[in-house]
Write the C-alpha cells for this entry.
Amino acid sequence: RHALLPDETDVDLLRRFPNKLIAINRYGDGFNFISTNHREAMQEVTARWLRKMNGKFNLYYLDIEDNSFICHERREGFISACEEAGAFYRIVPLCRDFHDNLARLDALHLKNDVANVIVSPSHNVTGAVLAMSRRANLVLGESLFYSDFDFGNAMEITGCEFPSVVQDHAAIAQQVIAAAELLGKELVQKFIPYHIVGQFQVYDHKE
C-alpha cells in the first residue's frame, strides 16, 4: 500500500532521499514520481459531460469515504471542472460495501424524466450504480449519464457502455524502471497519459 499510496510520512522520506525512492501514482513537489494525473483526468471527464449536457440536469459526484491522495485529487478535479463551468453539483458519500452503497443511491430518488449525470472516481461502485438505475428505471444515454475509473472492459462485463478513465499501468511500470537509472542524477517527475474509453452518449434534454 505504501508503495502505491504513500502517506505524508512516506512523502517526507521521498523528499529526504531523492536518490533512492520513487513514488508511484502519487505526485507533488520535491520528490521523484511516476503517476497518472488523477486531478486532470477527473477534470477532463467532468468537463466533457458539462459541455455535452443540454437543458436541465442533475449532477452528482460519488465521493468514496477514503482519505487517500488519489481520492482527494479526483474529487478536486471534479470540483474544479464544476467551478469553471458554474455548475451546481451534489456530493454523495459512498463506502466500500455494495448493499450500503445501493441504499444510499436509492435514497437519491432519481427520476427518469430528467437527465442525471453521475461521476464516479472508481469502478468499485459501478455495480451499485447500475443496480440502482434498474430499480429506478433509468436508461443510460437517456436519463442516466455515468462515468468511472479503470473499467476498460465494462461492455464485456456489464453489457453497458459508458466512459471510463483507464490508467496505463504498463507504461507506469516501464517508466519506473527507466527512472531508476536516473536516481541521484536528476529529479524524475513524470505523468503517464491516461485514456478515456467508452462513449459520452447524450440525447438532447431540453425543458
